[in-house]
Design the sequence.
C-alpha cells in the first residue's frame, strides 16, 4: 500500500506506550522498509509525523460560522493536518504547526465519545473525521478505518462519515462493516483538482475508489467545496458530473454538499506565499457577515445554481445542500431553503433515517 | 536575561571614562554600529544647545586609527555640527573596556530611557542586536523593550524593514506617513514595485487603512491580470484620476481607490452603481437615507430618518408613503447583479 512520504517522526514521551503509537510505528517500518529519522519538536512540515496525546475533547461541534446556516455536524478529532497540500486549505491558518498530528489516546477516549452519543438517543449524530485532516490519507498507518466504523455501525442514532481526496480505501474494503458508514469524496472541476489539490488523487482515481466502495456496499457522499469560479468553470464542473455518472450509481449517494471559496482574511497571505500560482483568490471577494472573505453573492449563487442544475439532471434525489450559506443564497440557488441551521440539520438527519433507518434504542 | 542586562547597565554606570573637550572632527560622521537614531530632526536640540549649552556629554570611543564611534549622543553631535561648534565636552571611553554588544546595549538603554523608537529605529536596534543575540532572545527580551509583541515574525519583519526598505520608504515609515502594516506588506515586493506604490501612497496621502487596502488591491490586480506595476499605474483612467485638478487630496485618494476597487471587482461595482442610481432617484424627504446592505450580502435595506420631533417624523413618514410605486422597491436579484 502506498504512503505519503514521512521524513521524520516525533513520538511524544507520553504517547510512546499507547497502542496506536506503537501500531503506527510498526506499520510505518513495514511500509517504508525502515523507520524514518526521529524528529525534534520544532521540526515542521507535512512530512513530519507527530504522534501525541490530545489534551482537548475528541467529539466537538463543527465550528461552522456565524450568521450563516450550518448543518450541526460533529467532528471526531483524530488528528490535525494532512499530507495533501490543497492551496485553499483553511488548516493552513487554523493550526500553528503544519506537522501531521495523530492523537495516540484516541482509543481510550472513544468510550466517552460513544457515551455522549448514547446519552442522547433522540438526536442523530452525524460525525466525521475529515474536517481537521483527511479521513483516509494516513489510514495505512493509523488504521482509523478499521477501529472506528465498528463503533458507529451499531449505534442507531449516529453515522460516521470518512471524507477524503485519496484512494486509500483498502482498510475500509477489508472490514466487514457497512451500516451507518458513509465514505465521502471531495470533488472539484478538473482544472481546480489538477492545479489546486496537490498530492490528492486524480478525480478519476477518486471516483474509481468511490465506485469500489459503492460496489462493496458503502453509502457515498460527495462534497464540492470550495467551488471556484475559473475560466471555463461551467464546462469543468459539467465534466466532473459526467465522470460521476460514469462511475457512480446516484441512488447510493446520501448527500452532496456545495460551498464556495471562503476564508479568514489572514489566510490570504499564507495562501499566496505557499501557493504563488493559485487561482482560488482571483474571484470577486467581499467581506461576509461573519467577517470571512466570500465571493460576491451572485457569483456564489451562479455557481450553486448551475451545479444544482447539472446534478439535478443526473439524479433528482441527491441530498444537495449548501455549506455555510444564507437563507437567501439557498432560495436563490435551489429554490428552497431549510430556513435555519436546525432546518438543515433536520434535512440531513432525514437523509440518514432514509438511508439507514431510525429506531430509538 | 533582562536582569542580566540591567545588571550590565548598572555596571555601565561604574564604567571609567574621561570627560574632555574634543574637536567635532574626531567623531564618526556616519551613524556607525551603535547609533539607533533615524529620521530625526535636530531643531529642538539646536535651540536647547544655543540656549543652555550641551548638558549631557555624548559618549564616544577613543580610536587612534579611525573616526571615533559614537555610542550615545549622535543627535547631540549632529546638532553641534549644525551650530558649527568646533569642539564639545564628551565622555571618552576606551573601546576595549567592554564588548561590542555591551556598547550597543549602553546605547539602547540610554535611548530607551529618554524617548520612544520609531519603527525604523526599532528595526535598526533589532538588526544590530541580531548580530550578537539569537532570534529567540530578541523575541522574548528585546521586542517587548521596544514596545513590540514578542513574536518571531514581528522581529524578523522589523529587521527586514530597517535593512531592506529604500531610504524614501524608511523616511515615510519613520515619520509615520507610511504604516508599519503597509511597510510590511511592501517588503515582499521588488524595489521597483515598492517605490511605485510608495509614491502613490504619498501622493494620495492615504490613511493607514486605505494604504493597506490599496496595496492589497494593487497586488491582486497585478496577479490576476498578470501585469506589471508600471502598466497598472500608467493606465489612462487612473492617470486621469491622479491628475484631476478639480479634486482635492482626500477626494483624489478616494477616487483612485474607487477606480482600483472597480477594476478588482467589476461585477460588484457595477451592481452597486446600478442600485445606488436607482435609489438616488427615489424622492425621499430630506433627512431620510436608504442604505444598501454591505456587499448585498444581506437581503435587507435600512432606512435612516433624522428628525427633530414627532411632528417632523410623521411628515417624513407621510412623504415616504406618498412616493409613487414605492412598493416596487427591492434589492436586485442575483441574475440582475451579474
Sequence:
Amino acid at each position: 500500500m502506498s504512503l505519503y512520504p514521512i521524513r521524520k517522526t516525533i513520538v511524544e514521551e507520553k504517547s510512546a506506550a499507547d497502542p496506536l503509537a506503537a501500531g503506527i510505528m510498526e506499520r510505518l517500518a513495514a511500509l517504508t522498509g525502515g523507520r524514518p529519522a526521529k524528529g525534534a519538536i520544532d521540526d515542521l512540515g507535512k512530512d513530519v509525523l507527530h504522534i501525541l496525546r490530545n489534551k482537548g475533547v475528541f467529539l466537538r461541534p463543527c465550528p461552522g460560522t456565524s450568521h450563516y446556516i450550518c448543518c450541526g455536524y460533529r467532528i471526531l478529532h483524530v488528528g490535525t493536518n494532512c499530507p495533501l497540500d490543497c492551496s485553499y486549505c483553511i488548516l493552513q491558518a487554523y493550526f500553528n504547526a503544519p506537522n501531521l498530528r495523530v492523537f495516540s489516546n484516541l482509543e481510550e477516549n472513544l468510550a466517552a465519545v460513544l457515551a455522549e452519543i448514547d446519552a442522547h438517543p433522540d438526536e442523530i449524530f452525524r460525525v466525521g473525521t475529515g474536517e481537521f485532516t483527511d479521513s483516509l490519507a494516513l489510514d495505512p498507518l493509523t488504521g482509523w478505518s478499521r477501529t472506528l466504523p465498528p463503533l458507529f455501525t451499531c449505534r442507531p442514532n449516529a453515522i460516521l462519515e470518512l471524507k477524503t481526496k485519496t484512494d486509500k480505501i483498502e482498510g475500509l474494503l477489508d472490514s466487514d462493516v457497512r451500516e451507518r458508514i458513509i465514505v465521502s469524496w471531495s470533488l472539484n472541476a478538473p482544472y481546480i483538482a489538477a492545479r489546486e489539490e496537490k498530492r490528492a488523487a486524480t478525480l478519476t482515481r477518486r471516483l474509481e475508489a468511490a465506485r469500489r466502495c459503492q460496489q462493496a456496499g458503502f453509502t457515498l457522499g460527495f462534497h464540492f467545496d470550495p467551488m471556484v469560479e475559473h475560466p471555463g468553470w461551467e464546462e469543468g464542473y459539467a465534466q466532473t458530473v459526467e465522470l460521476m455518472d460514469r462511475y457512480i450509481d446516484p441512488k447510493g449517494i446520501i448527500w452532496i454538499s456545495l460551498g464556495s471559496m471562503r476564508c479568514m482574511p489572514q489566510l490570504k497571505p499564507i495562501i499566496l506565499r505557499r501557493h504563488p500560482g493559485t487561482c482560488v483568490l482571483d474571484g470577486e471577494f467581499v467581506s461576509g457577515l461573519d467577517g470571512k472573505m466570500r465571493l460576491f453573492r451572485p457569483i456564489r449563487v451562479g455557481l450553486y445554481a448551475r451545479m444544482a442544475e447539472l446534478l439535478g439532471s443526473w439524479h433528482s434525489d441527491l441530498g444537495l445542500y449548501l455549506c455555510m450559506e444564507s437563507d437567501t443564497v439557498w432560495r436563490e440557488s435551489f429554490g428552497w431553503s431549510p430556513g435555519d441551521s436546525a432546518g438543515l440539520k433536520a434535512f440531513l438527519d432525514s437523509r440518514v433515517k432514509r438511508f439507514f433507518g431510525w429506531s430509538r434504542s | 536575561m533582562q536582569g542580566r542586562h540591567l545588571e550590565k547597565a548598572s555596571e555601565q554606570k561604574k564604567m571609567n571614562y574621561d570627560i574632555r573637550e574634543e574637536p567635532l572632527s574626531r567623531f564618526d560622521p556616519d551613524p556607525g554600529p551603535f547609533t539607533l537614531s533615524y529620521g530625526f530632526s535636530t531643531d529642538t536640540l539646536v535651540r536647547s544647545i544655543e540656549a543652555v549649552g550641551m548638558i549631557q556629554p555624548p559618549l564616544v570611543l577613543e580610536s587612534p586609527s579611525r573616526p571615533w564611534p559614537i555610542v550615545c549622543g549622535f543627535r547631540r553631535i549632529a546638532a553641534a555640527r549644525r551650530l558649527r561648534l568646533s569642539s564639545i565636552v564628551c565622555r571618552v571611553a576606551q573601546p576595549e573596556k567592554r564588548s561590542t554588544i555591551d556598547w550597543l546595549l549602553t546605547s539602547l538603554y540610554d535611548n530607551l530611557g529618554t524617548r520612544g523608537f520609531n519603527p525604523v529605529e526599532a528595526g535598526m536596534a533589532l538588526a544590530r542586536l541580531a548580530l550578537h543575540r539569537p532570534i529567540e532572545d530578541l523575541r522574548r527580551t528585546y521586542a517587548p523593550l521596544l514596545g513590540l509583541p514578542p513574536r518571531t515574525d514581528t522581529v524578523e519583519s522589523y529587521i527586514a524593514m530597517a535593512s531592506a526598505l529604500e531610504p524614501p520608504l524608511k523616511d515615510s515609515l519613520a515619520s509615520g506617513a507610511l504604516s508599519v502594516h503597509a511597510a510590511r506588506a511592501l517588503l515582499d515586493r521588488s524595489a521597483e514595485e515598492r517605490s511605485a506604490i510608495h509614491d502613490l501612497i504619498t501622493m494620495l496621502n492615504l490613511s493607514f487603512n486605505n494604504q493597506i487596502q490599496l496595496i492589497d488591491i494593487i497586488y491582486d490586480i497585478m496577479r490576476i491580470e498578470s501585469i506589471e506595476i508600471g502598466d497598472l499605474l500608467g493606465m489612462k483612467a487612473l492617470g486621469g484620476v491622479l491628475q484631476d485638478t478639480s479634486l482635492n487630496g482626500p477626494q483624489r485618494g478616494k477616487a483612485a481607490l474607487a477606480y482600483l476597487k472597480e477594476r478588482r471587482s467589476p461585477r460588484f461595482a457595477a451592481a452597486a452603481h446600478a442600485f445606488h442610481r436607482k435609489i438616488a432617484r427615489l424622492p425621499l424627504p430630506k433627512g431620510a437615507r436608504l442604505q444598501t446592505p454591505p456587499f448585498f450580502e444581506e437581503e435587507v435595506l435600512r432606512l435612516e430618518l433624522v428628525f427633530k420631533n414627532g411632528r417632523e417624523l410623521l411628515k417624513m413618514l407621510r412623504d415616504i408613503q406618498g412616493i409613487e410605486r414605492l412598493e416596487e422597491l427591492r434589492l436586485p436579484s442575483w441574475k440582475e447583479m451579474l
